[in-house]
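Why do we bother with a discrete structure alphabet at all? Because it lets us treat a fold like text: something you can write down, compare, and reason about line by line. To make this less abstract, here is a complete entry for Ion channel. Read it the way you would read a sentence in a foreign language you are learning: slowly, and without expecting to understand everything at once.
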Amino acid sequence: MNEVNEVPVPDGFFRTHRWSILLGVLAALILMDGFDDRVEIADQVALWGLSFLFLGVVGATERNTALRLVMAVPVIAWFILISMSEFLDVKVDGSLSGLAAILLFGSMIISFRQLFTPVHSEYERLSSGIFGYLLMAMLWGLIYWRIEIMNPGSFNLPEDVGSQRAPFVYFSMITMTTVGYGEITPAASLPRILTGMQAIVGTMFVAIFIGRIVGRLK
């Protein structure tokens, strides 16, 4: 029987259930994306929700580590850009997208580390793995969305898909799970290569994740 490494339960509700809380926030943000074409303030709510998600990841990172400092710097830059956009009406869409990709990647790495480090609860390890998996889908979806904006026609899209981000997050999810319904398909070389890589990475992650969790619970 494998011994499960545990660490003392930290004080405070957030420290105890940090990854479960972050997973809930992320799931709500993904659902919110589906209403960006129907609810006028959905985009703003999602943007600020993403801001607090990044802040929560910094709080969930182990204290007194370089990783926490490295993650905190782009989070501060993110809040500065958000403030410039909201209060000074400065156009920072491109910079925000690039910084969001960096923060999503960093958050994903931090969540994946929980699969290999001691935790106080195996449920938190499970939550962090699912959280990272959904972040991976969001990151790839953001990349697909920016590719289509910069090079229109990179994807074969339904007629009702305009410049919304949600369809590309959806496409990312079904690509990563290798479902592939076919209503959105890559039409250029770069997105084709990226979708192939995502399918491979998504499949490998599921295999590693399930093996790791089952192995820890034996």
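What the structure line is telling us, in plain words: Residues 6-10 have pLDDT under 50 and may be disordered. Residues 13-217 form a domain with the Helix Hairpins fold (CATH 1.10.287.70).
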